[in-house]
Design a protein that fits this description.
The chain has 124 residues and is of the alpha+beta class. The protein has a single domain, classed as 6-pyruvoyl tetrahydropterin synthase/QueD (Tetrahydropterin Synthase, Chain A), CATH 3.30.479.10. The protein has two helices and five strands. The chain is elongated, with a radius of gyration of 15 Å.
């Protein structure tokens, strides 16, 4: 099995609905997002997936949330913008945009860091 990962960053604000603590107030993070792909086979030139394409997919998803207040952006206008929900959102959106690579390549997981020491990971 092979794995590759790509990381990108973005900045956004949010407020956790129903949370009893300081994070219920509007605040922001400099997020880091990591996509992890896996597959059993490499293509004819020895790649599981082109890093450049994975980076572009992440950047395309980030465009919808970068420097925005997440609570105002779908789906977070109705879905609480927790790190866990943000990770699933990135997984779903990235999966829609991924094409090419080897037949066995697939997104294994997405991890979203709110800080250097706190993260949430989603995998199906």
């Amino acid at each position: 099995m092979f794995q590759i990962s790509v990381e990108e960053t973005f900045s956004a604000g949010h407020a956790l609905r129903g949370y009893k603590g300081k994070c219920e107030n509007p605040h922001g993070h400099n997020y880091k997002v990591q996509v992890l792909l896996e597959g059993a086979a490499l293509d004819s030139i020895g790649l599981l997936y082109d890093f450049t394409h994975v980076k572009q997919v992440l950047k395309d998803v980030i465009l919808g949330v970068d420097h925005k207040f997440l609570n105002d952006q779908p789906p977070f206008d109705t879905l609480n913008p927790s790190a866990e929900n943000i990770a699933k959102y990135f997984f779903d959106e990235a999966a829609k945009r991924m094409h090419g690579g080897t037949a066995s390549a697939r997104i294994k997981s997405i991890t979203v860091w709110e800080t250097d020491t706190t993260s949430a990971t989603y995998w199906p």
